[in-house]
Amino acid sequence: MDSFEGIIEFVAVAESRGFSAAAKQLGCSTSHVSRQVARLEKRLGCSLLARSTRSVSLTDNGMAYYQQSKELVVGLQQANEQITLQQFHLSGTLRVSAAGGFAEHFVAPALMAFGREHPSLSIDFDVNSNVVNFVEQGIDFAIRYGDLNDSNLIARQLVKRPMMAAASPDYLEQFGTPNNPKQLKSHSCIISNNDHWLFNNNGAYENIKVSGRWRSNNSNIVVNACERGLGIAYMPKSTFDRSLSSGRLVPVLESFWSNGASSWIVYPNRQFLPLRARLAIDYLLDHFSDWQE
Fold first, then answer.
1. Please, which residues have CB within 8 angstroms of residue 139's CB and are 6 or more apart in sequence?
2. Inter-residue contact 220 to 101 (CB < 8 Å)
3. Do 254 and 175 share a structural domain?
4. How many domains does the chain have?
5. How far apart are CA 192 and CA 171, in angstroms?
6. Is 2 a domain residue?
7. Residues 107, 287: Cα–Cα separation, whole Å
8. Sign of the CA dihedral running 145, 149, 152, 157
9. Which of 65, 83, 101 is the last residue in one of the domains?
10. Model confidence over 32-73: pLDDT tens digits?
């Protein structure tokens, strides 16, 4: 036989004893079911169904054909279910590149929860802020913060991360509390990604060049230096969560904080992203969909 079209529709009609009921079961139109069964009968050269205005019944040929074809449909359903189970039974290694306090404190635990749901999956979480060569390093996706320059990558926004300035109570007691971003020029500032800090001054952005005795591209180290009284730090709000709740740091310049930048999931622009990566990306996007800094 050249085609198996119409067999699923025929079995549905035979079992439900009606075209409308079969269409409802299959989630399609009645006319589609009728058309497919008619084409099947034409290919076979005989009538499978006896139609009347009130009911549909099987002809002798239809009964014989149903007995054989229903096993094919059941086998197809089982095959579909099996391949679906195999798809969601993830295995192999998911390789993720990430850096910063947000990735360590929030993304990593979310991927741990994802890993618990897929016990045959291994996860390699590489803490690295360097530029990633996805192909050579075998990275499935990366978590990055701020502006993205590589147009060859697909970027999905994970969270929007407004900023916060903070300092230790000891530092503020010794050097005073600034009440305007311009006053930061006379303070020791702890620099993370850059020494130009963007503030919102009554709706107008104000770019302040800062300096200080401590610089690090690791947000955890910046927070630690800030707790030890080495200066004022300016980073995404969630970076300071633990320090604020413990009282080791306090917010400053609150009315001037900017909206900040975003954290992104980035991955190669390729047609076939591994299933483990696609499901992990969807999981993270859903996990952080209601994120609040």
1. 95, 96, 97, 126, 132, 133
2. yes
3. yes
4. 3
5. 18
6. no
7. 9
8. positive
9. 83
10. 999 999 999 999 999 999 988 778 899 999 999 998 888 888
